[in-house]
Amino acid sequence: MVILIIISVIILLIGVMLYNNLISKKNKIEYAFSSIDVMLKKRSDLIPNLVAAAKEYMTHEAGILTKITELRSQLQQADSGSKERFALEGQLGAALGQIQLAFENYPDLKANQNILQVQASLNEVEEQLSAARRAYNGSVYDFNTAIETFPGNIMAGFMNLDRRESFEILPEERENVDVSDLFNKK
Amino acid sequence: MFRICLIRNREKFHASVVGSALSSTFSKHNNFCQTLFSSATKRVELLNCVTIKNMRTKEELYEHLLPDLQQLERHRRDAFAKGYRSVFIAMGVGAGVGLIGLIIGYFNSGNLLWPIPLASIPVGLIIGFIIRHSILQKFKLIYKSQVVSAVVSNINPGLYYDAELEITRQEFRNSQLFSAYPHRYNGEDLIQGRYKKTDFRLSEIHAEERRQRKTKNGTQTYYVTIFKGLFLIADFHKDFKGRAFVYTDHAEKTFGSWLSKKMQYFSGGRGDLVYLEDPEFERYFKVYSDDQVEARYILSTSMMQDILALRKKFKTHIQLAFLHSNVYLAISTSIDFLEPDIKKNLTEPETLYDLYTDVQLLLQLIDDLNLNTRIWSKQGS
């Protein structure tokens, strides 16, 4: 009888530990996701400065600048967890990449202190964004391994935990965009 | 001539001291300058001050330094000969004392006192080698203060070299890389200043911890090396707030991936374990940090590659700490950099070129870590 009680206490303890472990891993994913969110917001906050500084010089690229501003305002309305939002962020990332490439054509602009500052901040935020995505993927990997290996898989079954998807580079960002094509758009 | 040069050096030093981290050694340097001043008159015939226009090629530098090198070469031979002479003399004295012992013993009691020569000859030899070592050491210091300084400031005028200074114990402790306290702490060959866009301090360090063990005759004190090798402190090119530590992962090789992951959880108060995606990096290193995102911001994919490349280059353990907006890099090695080979002729161009390559290799560390890439908002001030 005593042995039975001991065994059930041990099983209960293991169960509690497994449960806590999985919850902590799930929370880590959410935490990592929120840091991506923070970086994305930080990036879109840089846009007014960028547009203000670049607009005087980049007469030919007014199209991309308008597009970037539009994307930003759409983003402000989009639901923060939605697919639509991430699609928009992807487009924004691509457009920002292009505008930075286009800077190369304007020697005056490259000497402008404001632009240099915005550019440095953009580089920084992109690097932080990539770090946040990697951190997210790291915690997703950790979580997925935990819920798919024994004994975590049994507990995960009870808790109804599903496999999470890791962040992939959005197609818009992966493509090597033809800059001239974008400039021809309105 | 010599005084003027020192004053110049001091001004250069003023200019190169940037930030509070670097200023702590300033007073130490001032004292050092004063000691040099006082002994300057003694050395003036030897130390013909090297005033250099910067950025000569190494061939030009050799041409320029040749008169000094010839003088130093004479000094080297002299020191070399003097060194051996002192060994022979000390051994001779030892033998003499031994002989006297034998004679006195023979006339006094009829017994030859063998223990006296048996002890006095080795003692003489040891004393001889100690004297030789100090003669050579003196030569090496003079060589370093002249030639190594010239090479260092030729490569970059913003750099300052001192053979007798090192990264301080406090700076070493500040890195938080090693938890043991360094009771015995030595170092030499400090290079500091700004290389391209990066402020740094670099020196050789030997840090040891004092331990005690119980033996039959009581407690015995002995020292265990915490770290021996090159230690670099440099301004990191990105802003960050937290801490990240990169250690060599000894367990991964021995125990395999799964068990070593479990063992790595014990971080010794350095934050949580950070898994990084680069499998090669994970095989050799383990990373701890307070902030998972920031650790990845610091250890970008290219930084991981740079650290791996550094490991391959030096073929030894390397460890890094990122904190206080600096990177601390510890490369364990028993190679003594920037030492003149006492057997080599100094007037040979190759001798100088080898030194040149050594200095470049050391400065290269900053490029190896890509610290001169300043495309983020933290610019080289």
Features:
heterodimer, A: 186 residues, mainly alpha, de novo design (two linked rop proteins), B: 381 residues, alpha+beta, nine-stranded antiparallel beta sheet, 9 strands, 20% strand, flat
Share of β-strand residues of chain A: under 5%
Described by strand count, sense and barrel closure, the largest sheet of chain B is: 9 strands, antiparallel
Mean pLDDT of chain B: 81
H-E string of chain B: HHHHHEHEEEEHEHEHHEEH
What's the helical proportion of residues of chain B?
40-55%
CATH topology of chain A: de novo design (two linked rop proteins)
Total number of β-strand segments of chain A?
0
Helix share bin of chain A: over 70%
Order of helices and strands of chain A: HHHHHHHH
Mean pLDDT over all positions of chain A: 82
Low-pLDDT stretches of chain B are 1-54
Largest sheet of chain A: none
Oligomer: heterodimer
Large-scale geometry of chain B: flat
Task: Supply the number of helical segments of chain A.
Answer: 8
* SS summary, helix count of chain B: 11
Distance between the termini of chain B: 34 Å
Largest interface: A-B, 21 and 17 residues
Task: Give a structural overview.
The complex is a heterodimer of chains A (186) and B (381). Chain A has 186 residues and is mainly α. Chain A has one domain (2-184): Up-down Bundle (de novo design (two linked rop proteins)). Chain A is 80% helix and 0% strand. Chain A is built from eight helices and no strands. Chain A has helices at 2-55, 62-77, 83-102, 107-111, 113-148, 152-159, 171-174, 179-184. In chain A, helix 1 packs across helix 6. The longest helix of chain A has 54 residues, at 2-55. Chain B is of the alpha+beta class. Chain B has a domain at 240-324. Chain B is built from eleven helices and nine strands. Chain B has helices at 2-16, 20-23, 26-43, 58-109, 115-155, 169-174, 250-264, 279-284, 292-298, 301-314, 349-368; strands at residues 159-162, 184-195, 198-215, 218-235, 244-248, 272-274, 285-289, 318-323, 326-332. A nine-stranded antiparallel β-sheet of chain B has the order 1-2-3-4-9-8-5-7-6, sandwiched between helices. Chain B is flat, with a radius of gyration of 25 Å. Chain B starts with a helix and ends in a 13-residue tail after the last helix. In chain B, 32% of the residues are buried. Residues 1-54 of chain B have low confidence and may be disordered. The chains are: A mainly alpha (186), B alpha+beta (381). Chain A binds chain B through residues 28, 32, 35, 117, 119-121, 123-124, 127-128, 130-132, 134-135, 137-139, 141-142, and chain B through 238-239, 274-277, 292-297, 300, 375-377, 379.
